[in-house]
Amino acid sequence: MDFIILVQIIVFAISAALCGLLVPVCIKVAIKQNILDYPTWRKTHKVPTPYLGGTAIFVSFWIVVGLGFLVSYLYLAGMFAGIFGFLEPFKGYLQGGLGKLPNVAQIFLGSLVIFLLGLCDDVKSMKALPKFIVQCVAALILVLSGYRIGAFGLPPILGYLAAFIWTLMLINAFNFIDSLDGHLTGVSIVAGIFFFLITQLLGQPLVSIMLMILLGVLIGFLPYNFYPARVFLGDAGSTFLGYIFAAITLISTYEQPQTTVFTILFPVCVFSVPLYDMISVIIIRIFSKKPIYVGDRNHFAYRLVELGMSERVAVLFSFLVATACGLIALLLYTVNLVGVVLIILIYLCLLAIIAFLEIYVTRRLSLSAELAKKFRRRKTDIAEAEG
What we know:
The protein contains 15 helices and two strands. By secondary structure, the protein is mainly alpha-helical. The protein has a domain at 3-256. The protein has a two-stranded antiparallel sheet with strand order 1-2. The termini are far apart. The model has no long low-confidence stretch (mean pLDDT 85).
């Protein structure tokens, strides 16, 4: 078996098991410390539900990543040779991976900042401006570490600005979409699977291993988070997932001899559901003359429930949309420039169809509700007149 595949399987299993063990601990701590999400008018759960699911995800992910680098270091330093002797044929892989340690350390630092911000918000709700400032600091850590978007011939300064904006977008998109039970976790799993497949096609082993660790953590967490949820991600978990996915997209390379420049659109397609949710919610709030940072029930999953779906069906529908967009992303790797243009048009048509159905059905439901209201009023007037 190829060394990379073996490592992927091992880290996936370890991270899933570790997160599965840590979640019950985090639930107990959250209940004991009263770190709970209490029901409100814009939420669907009926009883106070523990936060700190994000803590289990953050800790599990970085423990497994850290163990991987520790094993590599110990082996290359000649320590415990008897234990790690089986790694000798893979020395080149390990040296290359260890050489990426500074990059991973920078990602860890930024993710720690965003995680602590989310944790503070879960414990005691914070105002929008301080949260946004700290998010900018976390995004700057990536940019100042040299990560930028270099496609389409962007000058370096614009590439850094694009990377900064992209990171902020994903942080907030993942925070926005964390609505119904299991919604964000499942969408993240779907996105992670397709991004993993893309990194396999592009030959990026370190990124693929990080994605397998993240997927393992999410799989270990999902049983506790799916409807009815026993624990929530909280802002600590949702913003961390957005940040870590943003970092992974920035350390990945998409332009290769067999691909077109449009492969840079991979991440946009893969993360379509969170991005669609965020953009559509912002548009709705602007047209409603409401602040874009004030929470409401206008999110994609909530809108699906309003159309008549159950919570589980709405979540599964989102998974299906995410899968369709992920498949479109994979197609970008296999076709020429004309095919890419057609794929982009299909992608835009898919999102337009979803938006059209949402608007059309919502208006029909509103019309039906208004007619029913008028009918009840008229019936009451007739009864009063007869009386």
